[in-house]
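pinging the channel bc i need a second pair of eyes. not urgent but kinda urgent?? the chain im working w is below, pasted from the shared doc
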Amino acid sequence: MPKKTAEAIKQSGNEYVLQVKGNQKNLLEQIILNCNVSPAISTDETIEQNRGRDETRRVSVYDDLYGIDTDDWIGIKQIVKIERVTYTSKKELPSLDTSYFISSIQVTALEYNKGIRSHWSIENSLHYVKDVTFHEDASLIRSGNAPTNFSIIRNIAINVLRRMNFNSFPQAIRMVGGDIPKLLEALE
């Protein structure tokens, strides 16, 4: 997210929790350094089993903003680090994923864990399906209203398939993709 996004969010009277990725290289490097040299002011850890995977998620909150330009990142108050360790089977090595966020609010690690996790459920239930199943990010449709129109069509398709109670979108597409009467029946 660019600095202007944080500024626009704050100027509209709202707060932000923004993920910091490699496109903000200097900010990300400073955040990692701050997390490595400062103690967390709050931590929360959850363990859950989901789809045959065991996942441990540790959220750590820091208030060390040393080296971060608070004039550029308007309203920044905290740094959030999320470490996810996922075990897919006892035979494979676990995977480790670490994400960093900046926040204009001051809450506990538990509250960040719940909020960010609920956002990921939205991401997984809609955006992931649109990208992986319908290849939206790979689409070459880029001019005029066409990208928006095709996004709406994909949303309609996802809703119709969900209404038909399919657990897997690739399976749903194979089962009813060419069966127009069955699709029309789902719309009734």
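so The chain has two domains: 3-107, 146-187. and Residues 109-132 form the longest helix (24 residues). — does that match what u expected or am i reading it wrong
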